[in-house]
Design goal:
The chain is mainly alpha-helical and 745 residues long. Among the domains are: 215 residues, Serine Threonine Protein Phosphatase 5, Tetratricopeptide repeat, CATH 1.25.40; 95 residues. The protein contains 33 helices and 4 strands. The strands form 2 sheets. It has a two-stranded antiparallel sheet with strand order 1-2. A hairpin with a 2-residue loop joins β1 and β2. α18 packs antiparallel against α19. It is extended. The N terminus and C terminus are likely disordered.
Length: 745
């Protein structure tokens, strides 16, 4: 059931798009018997054939039930495609397990398996445990006679010497064992051998440290998925990590000889393809590196492997054909081109036909290219690009103007409604200096093109007349273009009007303008504003056209219930305004009752704020200049004969004793009813005296004449307000007239 579910969820379109489901299936397979788990493993590995962890899990499940034939079959399918140390160690474990009861004769098979594994994955920096296992195996071999003992010691020495010069994660352990081994055989011989290998060992350790920096950036549990680079950046980061690792290996950090260097780089590419096999650039880089290394046959195999994995990659096919053509294998290249022609859709087939014509022209001559073009032009799915490509090929390479003109003319009868083809034909006639036929072509094209597709052709026609026509023809074509575009554009009759932009267009040559760039920008802005005049008249207050059709799939707001904000808006008839202070009203129908009551309570509890709001100027339009607002406020008189909440004159409220600090939070309920002790009043009187002295100082200063000085004085007054706010004293008034300070809660 799970296998069929995975199969249904991994069609050709989203086969590699759900690796999380694959992980869940793999974990569930561990809980099933081998009969139920086998279809799941087969399905997983059909989708992710380079996933070493799934292959190892599959092998372990088969080995658990001693199904050795199945294990052999699995290893034959995966070992060469999965250069992963844990999988190869499982292979060695399997070989040892099969041969454990076969006696001494089977030890050679085990030794051969070790050598086979180390030859394929021994260069991995994680291969240290595999080298340790090999050395331990050699030590365990029986020695029946001196000859066998000598062979065993030689094999052991070679294994140690190869292991210690290979950068791996067990190098220190292997070096210590090698020292003991050589000293146990002969101290005199050990001294020379250890001295020779000490430098190589140190060099290998240094390379290991550098290589490990790149290896640690790689996710070795990642599944090979089709590149998307969407969502998280994991795919992109892994691609970059492998690119850096490959660049490091191509630099030959170990300074090894050419053959070992090629083997090392090829090993890194093969490991990279375990995770990035769906990336065409990796296959291309690998093939090109093979070519540069002088192994073209290996490059051919790389291309063929890559096209089996991603057969839809046309760019990889073109690269493969290019390589075959460059080395003289024309038949192979032609076979690749023919394959591209048979696999693509209309757009890709059009490109393939163009490239095949060029290929035939290069390799087989003019007649072969002409013959194929005639055959392709008869196809109903032949695109206009094929006509343009062949015509220009005949004109530029074959120097045959007549053939090129005939091809363009034949294509025009078929693609006269394609503006791009018409313009390509115009460009060809430009090269012939055939101005008469250019005008005739424009007229023929514009008479058949639909108006909505003729914009580009009209622009080119106008440019042609501006460059090569007389003034009368120039103005005539411009007017005709305006009339044609006025029928299809939103601007309507406005486009028919003469504009200075037209003059700029007439008298511009390449990057030379008849005006400055500032003038050009101004003209562009004016043109934009002029076009928007008629649009604004057709739109409502929210910018929506009155006659626009409302889509049933879009929820639009009920604009009939919306109120446009206006600071001086009059309350609607029948509404009950909440009068807070003269000149300050809040329309009760524009705010919820809760918000209205809260605003009323706050404003009534703070008379100073009421007086401030009452003197704010009416604002309509953009935000006013701050300096102007402050200047107006500083020059206005604050009215003090206003009514409080209980009908008490506001002047009495302002001169009443301030409440204590503890009662400030409840001032809306106990306004004017709480008094400070006499000690507090004495302290307040002293502060009022100091404040009065400061006010007298301000009075003696000449009144400021500019807004910046007014702002400075107002900030000074606010600072004094802050020093007296704890005792309930607030100073406000006109800085110009020096009004006395009053107290308020």
């Amino acid at each position: 059931k799970m296998a069929s579910s995975f199969d249904n969820n991994n069609t050709n379109s989203n086969m590699y798009s759900n690796p999380e489901s694959a992980e869940i299936l793999a974990r569930n397979a561990l809980k099933l018997g081998i009969t139920q788990a086998t279809p799941i493993y087969e399905q997983l590995l059909a989708v992710y054939p380079t996933s070493a962890k799934y292959w190892k899990q599959y092998v372990d499940a088969q080995m658990a039930v001693n199904n050795y034939d199945a294990v052999r079959n699995i290893f034959s399918r995966c070992l060469f495609n999965c250069l992963h140390i844990p999988l190869w160690r499982s292979y060695i474990h399997f070989i040892k397990r099969v041969n454990e009861n076969k006696g001494v004769a089977a030890l050679d098979d085990t030794k051969t398996a070790f050598e086979f594994a180390l030859n394929n994955v021994g260069d991995d920096i994680a291969s240290g445990p595999l080298w340790v296992d090999f050395v331990s195996f050699l030590k365990s071999l029986p020695s029946g006679n001196p000859r066998d003992e000598s062979q065993r010691m030689n094999s052991l020495r070679k294994a140690y010497q190869k292991a210690i010069v290979t950068p791996n994660n067990c190098a220190d352990q292997l070096w210590r064992e090698y020292e003991c081994f050589e000293n146990g055989v002969s101290r005199q011989l050990a001294k020379g051998l250890l001295s020779d290998y000490q430098g190589k060992f140190n060099s290998a350790k240094a390379v290991y440290r550098e290589r490990k920096k790149y290896v640690d950036e790689i996710d070795w549990g990642m599944l090979a998925v089709v590149p998307t680079w969407s969502g998280t950046n994991k795919e992109e980061s892994q691609w970059l990590a492998w690119k850096r690792f490959l660049g490091f290996e191509k630099g030959n950090p170990q300074r090894i000889d050419s053959d070992l260097f090629k083997k090392r780089v090829a090993f890194t590419y093969e490991q990279c393809l375990m995770y990035l096999c769906h990336y065409p650039d990796i296959w291309y880089d690998y093939a090109m590196w093979r070519v540069k290394s002088g192994d073209v046959d290996a490059a051919v195999k790389v291309f063929e492997r890559g096209l089996k994995v991603i057969p839809s990659s046309e760019i990889l096919k073109y690269a493969y054909a290019e390589m075959e053509e460059s080395r003289g294998m024309v038949k192979n290249a032609k076979r690749i081109y023919e394959g591209i022609l048979g696999d693509g859709d209309d757009a890709s087939t059009g490109l393939a036909r163009i490239q095949f014509i060029r290929f035939l022209r290069r390799t087989e001559g003019v007649e072969a290219a002409r013959k194929y073009f005639v055959e392709a032009s008869k196809s109903p799915d032949c695109t206009y690009q094929v006509y343009v490509a062949y015509a220009m090929l005949a004109f530029c390479l074959d120097k045959d103007q007549k053939v090129a003109r005939n091809v363009f003319e034949a294509g025009f009868k078929r693609f006269m409604n394609e503006p791009v083809y018409v313009l390509a034909y115009v460009d060809f006639l430009y090269t012939l200096n055939d101005d008469n036929n250019i005008r005739a072509l424009f007229e023929r094209a514009l008479s058949s093109l639909p108006p909505e597709n003729s914009v580009e052709v009209w622009e080119r026609f106008v440019q042609f007349e501006q460059s090569f026509g007389d003034l009368a023809s120039m103005l005539k074509v411009e007017q005709r273009r305006k009339e044609a575009l006025a029928r299809i554009g939103e601007d309507g009759a406005s486009i028919l009007e003469d504009s200075l932009q037209d003059v700029v267009s007439r008298y511009t040559f390449r990057d030379l303008l008849p005006c400055s760039t500032k003038d050009l920008d101004l003209l562009a802005r004016q043109d934009c504003l002029a076009k928007n005049i008629s649009k604004k008249a057709e739109k409502g207050p929210l910018g929506m056209t009155n006659d626009s059709a409302v889509s049933a799939n879009v929820n639009y707001p009920d604009t009939s219930r919306m109120v446009v904000y206006d600071p001086i808006q009059k309350p609607e008839t029948g509404s009950t305004p909440s009068t807070i202070a003269p000149g300050v009203q809040v329309a009760s129908n524009t705010l919820p009752n809760l918000v209205t009551d809260t605003v009323d309570d706050i404003l009534k509890a703070t008379p100073a704020l009421v007086a401030f709001l009452a003197n704010l100027p009416a604002v309509e339009g953009p935000r006013p200049d701050v300096d102007v607002v402050i200047s107006i406020l500083l020059q206005s008189d604050i009215p003090i004969k206003q009514m409080g909440k209980s009908g008490t004159p506001l002047s009495q409220l302002l001169t009443a004793p301030a409440p204590s600090t503890s009662n400030l939070s409840n001032s809306s309920k106990s306004h004017g009813s709480s008094f400070q002790p006499s000690r507090g009043r004495q302290s307040r009187k002293r502060k009022d005296i100091d404040s009065q002295d400061e006010d007298e100082t301000v009075q003696r200063q000449p009144p400021p004449q500019d807004a910046f000085q007014m702002r400075h004085n107002m900030k000074a007054q606010k600072a004094r307000v802050g020093t007296t706010s704890q005792s309930g004293s607030v100073s406000y008034g006109s800085a110009r007239s020096g009004d006395l300070s009053v107290t308020s809660s």
